[in-house]
Specification:
The protein has six helices and no strands. It is mainly α and 158 residues long.
Length: 158
């Protein structure tokens, strides 16, 4: 093919797989990896606080609130500077506040799950608290957070 034929040839459109990988699937994979780092921070700190003795911070809901709050900051940094870096806004303070609001919505789901199983159902062992908070509650809360982050905090329409 000559140089003039190469210049006039129409550009091939990206495949469906490429569009998905660069679009929502790409966001979700990056979001998942950032979330995995946040999960390690959250679960480690939750268990450290829970096992620290009979103090106010070792109570399940307090320990989960503290550990999730630290993980929220870690996740904001990862999502702002990696997952949604193309969509980050110049108003950092507003973006952070919106991220925290969306994260707290997910935290409420997690805390509600932990409260229900620990205080209503009476499953009060550390393993039960971990299953309730860090598997069931965190899984449900992640769905809420992802939707709010993608379509509110870092919406491409903003």
């Amino acid at each position: 093919m000559s140089t003039s034929e190469q210049i006039s040839a129409p550009a091939a459109s990206p495949s469906l797989f490429t569009r998905l990988r660069l679009g929502l699937v790409g966001y979700f994979v990056k979001f998942g990896l950032v979330g995995l780092v946040g999960l390690v921070v959250d679960v480690s700190l939750f268990n450290l606080l829970s096992l620290s003795g009979a103090s106010w911070w070792s109570e399940p809901l307090v320990a989960k609130f503290v550990s999730t709050s630290v993980a929220i900051v870690v996740n904001w940094l990862g999502n702002r500077y990696w997952t949604f870096r193309r969509d980050k806004r110049s108003d950092v303070a507003r973006e952070f506040v919106e991220f925290v609001v969306a994260s707290v919505a997910g935290m409420v789901v997690t805390l509600a799950t932990l409260w229900f199983t620990h205080y209503v159902l009476g499953f009060d062992s550390l393993i039960a608290d971990n299953i309730s908070a860090n598997i069931i509650g965190l899984g449900l809360g992640t769905l809420v957070r992802f939707a709010l982050y993608r379509w509110w905090v870092w919406s491409v329409r903003r």
